[in-house]
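hey so i finally got around to running the thing on that chain from the lab meeting. sorry it took forever, my laptop kept dying and i had to restart like 3 times. anyway pasting the input first so we r on the same page abt which one it is
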Amino acid sequence: MELWYTEKHSDDVQFSIRVEKQLYTEETEYQRIDVMTSKEFGTFMTLDGLMMVAEKDEFIYHDMIIHPPMAVNPDIKNVLVIGGGDGGAVRELARYSGIEQIDLAEIDRTVIDVCRRFLPSTTCALDDPRVKIHYEDGLKFIRRKADFYDLIVVDSTDPFGPGEGLFTREFYGNCYKALKEDGILVNQHESPYYKTYADSFQRAHRSIRGFFPVHMVYQAHIPTYPSGHWLFGFASKHYHPVRDLQAERWNNLGLYTKYYNTDLHVGSFALPTYVKELLENA
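ok and heres what got predicted. didnt touch it at all, straight out
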């Protein structure tokens, strides 16, 4: 008998992966966690039945949520990651020797424990001495901060359950307050393709642009995410993501990235017309 993981992307579309083995399942006080292995995507984790991270393509997401802001401001010192319990965002940040502090606010301790066990390739930097893990709601954590971070990375789940509060105007206002005068905010911005996801994308963008003078969207192709077309938000009090790109400085760091490069950086902000229209109508 074959076992398949199937995720509903819309009322009429489903995405399926043939599963070799289910490795883990648990219902925590926040969400259901499942870990499975597959021939095509390796080990992958879902939360409440939604794909979060897969071994084969996680590098795309983590490259694109971390390296664009770091290439715009290579002098970033203090970083906050909200969500990101799989550790991939922290792994990429830890590659920068100039970063002095990385705070990780993850509400569900079990997510980190499970990823340490089954996804060591993404959690490998969580024990870096610059990393401090805070097991609490990112929405509450950020309220206590002011004028402190150079970069905030919102590596949240989709806007359901524990991740819902991370798409609100209140949350982004608190992020603005927590950032320094030249701070950058980057967030996963959902897919523009299916209506439910597009509505979430528009809602988040509407909230962000109410606070930040610079607010732009960029894109990547992530096969295991709904439609494969995924967006990220770049917001800043000061930096423009294209005009202020420090391509030469970033390339001189000598970091190998499997997806990101500074040519792609520029091109990723060139959006399809239908996405531009969604932004205009947000």
